[in-house]
Amino acid sequence: MPPHPFFPACAFIFGMLVGSFLNVCICRMPKDESIISPPSHCPQCSYQIRWYENIPVVSYLFLRGKCRGCGAQISLQYPLVELLNGTLSLLLFLRFGPTPAFAVLFLFCSALVVITFIDIEHQIIPDEISLSGILVGFILSFFLKEHSWLNSLFGILLGGGILLLVAFAYQRLTGKDGMGGGDIKLLAMMGAFLGWKAVPFIIFASSLVGSIIGVSIMMLQKKDAKLAIPFGPYLAFAAILYIFYGKPLIRWYLELSGFGQG
């Protein structure tokens, strides 16, 4: 029986409200600023934003994308993050319902939203999220029936270990750093939340999508292979893809390749 529309709507609104806070994290964490104080304000004129001017998406449309204090343009990132997080919350609720899995994966996906936008703009992945995420994901595995703490522990070791090995091999072969430590810690965090079985899928899917998009960008911008492209967003996309479609896609691939036949 499908859930009453009221509850999915609440999940969507809740996700957008959290998305408003995620915007604060995205803007302040790269600057090492507090995400608690001072209250939300315009970065141009320091106009303190009132609560009714901070309603997700609605306030942006009402203000026509401009600060009430100085008229400066408000970045489209703000409603985009709110809508994205609201949509993820809705999809997770429809998939898992009001369960501990929904709460844990919502926390995980919200962290991925912050990481994605920070990595795109600054090409860094904050340790405050990835390292604490490893610990939180491992602790929460004790309370989930989806996978055990041992699965989470193996996920941490496999996720961090594989990319660390790849980074080490690349550095030895080329004498250059090809992968940041942030990506390694991020994949370890993903292993903590999703378990070790998710790690190979995430690596394959992120590499495939990253290669296609990366090559396309280099061709359009006429850049060479030295162009720095953040890998975190591709890892985040692959992790979310695994949550919703990972197992069916793995089953389809095994059947297609003949490994899934009895």
Structural description of this entry:
- The chain is mostly helical.
- It has two domains: 1-98, no CATH class; 100-262.
- The chain is 67% helix and 0% strand.
- It has helices at 6-28, 58-62, 77-96, 100-122, 127-140, 149-174, 181-194, 198-221, 232-257.
- Helix 4 packs antiparallel against helix 5 and helix 7 crosses helix 9.
- The longest helix has 26 residues, at 149-174.
- The chain is globular.
- The two termini are 34 Å apart.
Cα(first) to Cα(last) distance is: 34 Å
Structural class: mainly alpha
Q: Which strand-content bin applies to the residues?
A: under 5%
What is the number of strand segments?
A: 0
Low-confidence stretches: none
Average of the residue pLDDT scores: 88
Number of domains: 2
Order of helices and strands: HHHHHHHHH
- Share of helical residues: 55-70%
Keywords:
2 domains; mainly alpha; single chain; 262 residues; 9 helices
Task: Give a brief rundown of this model.
The protein has 262 residues and is mostly helical. Helices cover 67% and strands 0% of the residues.
Annotate the secondary structure layout.
Blueprint (H helix, E strand, L loop, with lengths): L5 H23 L29 H5 L14 H20 L3 H23 L4 H14 L8 H26 L6 H14 L3 H24 L10 H26 L5
Helix pairs in contact: 1-3, 1-4, 3-4, 4-5, 4-9, 5-6, 5-7, 6-7, 7-9, 8-9
